[in-house]
Amino acid sequence: MRLRALIAAAAVAGFPAAAFAHPHAFIDASLRLETDGAGRLLAVAVDWRYGRADSHYILDARGYFDDGKITGAELRALVRDEIDWSVVPGDLSVMQGGTALPLGPLVSPSVVYEGEVLTFTHRRVLSAPAAPEAGPVEVKVYDPEFYTAYSLDEAALAAPDPACRLRVEPADLEEAGRRLGEALDAMNLSADPQDAGPGDPFPEVGAFFADAVILDCRP
Q1: What is the pLDDT of residues 29-81, one digit of tens each?
Q2: Would residue 194 count as lying in a domain?
Q3: Span 157-176, mean pLDDT?
């Protein structure tokens, strides 16, 4: 929600036109960090909650919403048959000590449809548990090229772990907006009024707009 407000305010202020080709989609994300009870991060469960219009579009485009209703069988088919999860980028970053921790593919996908909104859930398992003695772990959810804008709604431990402390560091959205403007200028995009699609060049600024979830399980 903070991110939407910044973009609206920047538009009124006359921000370069190309900036508003992105983002095209807004997703509210929730994260549940799974540890082993002794401070080692094992996996991250992720919720992606789409807006009402995007939810209707996803269903309409696949012919699931012709009668204005959606059944449990159709939702299961949506997850099982309509989405190739092996090519979904995931848009999740897990860092420790400045190094990216390798993640496995998206697994255990599911979806619910409530209040005219689709919420997709999946898990990302770390290739190896994150050792707490190596320092805090930083988790962010973002699209590097900012085609999709994620707002972090919630972050929590999936289950109590007495070894761990979790906090959220909000993104500095004013600084992120400044960096976006500089990047657009550097790519000579600020004067281009045309909308940029997902295949068009756009600076990788998504990380600047992402809140950081910090998991600290050091003794």
Answers
A1: 999 999 999 999 999 999 999 999 999 999 988 888 777 788 999 999 999 99
A2: no
A3: 94
- Quick one: which of 218, 170, 167, 171 has its CA closest to 33? 167
Domain count, the chain: 1
> Please, which residues bridge with residue 157 across strands?
33
Burial of 179 from C-beta contacts in 10 A (0-12 / 13-18 / 19+): middle
Domain that holds residue 87: 30-172+204-216
Classify residue 135: in a domain, yes or no.
Answer: yes
What secondary structure, in 3-state letters, does the chain show? Answer: CHHHHHHHHHHHCCCCHHHHHCCCEEEEEEEEEEECCCCCEEEEEEEEEECHHHHHHHHHHCCCCCCCCCCHHHHHHHHHHHCCHHHCCCCEEEEECCEECCECCCEEEEEEEECCEEEEEEEEEEEEEECHHHCCEEEEECCCCCCEEEEEEEEEECCCCCCCEEEEECCCHHHHHHHHHHHHHHCCCCCCCCCCCCCCCCCCCHHHHCCEEEEECCC
Query: Which residues sit opposite 35 in a β-bridge?
Result: 41
Percent of the chain with pLDDT over 90: 60
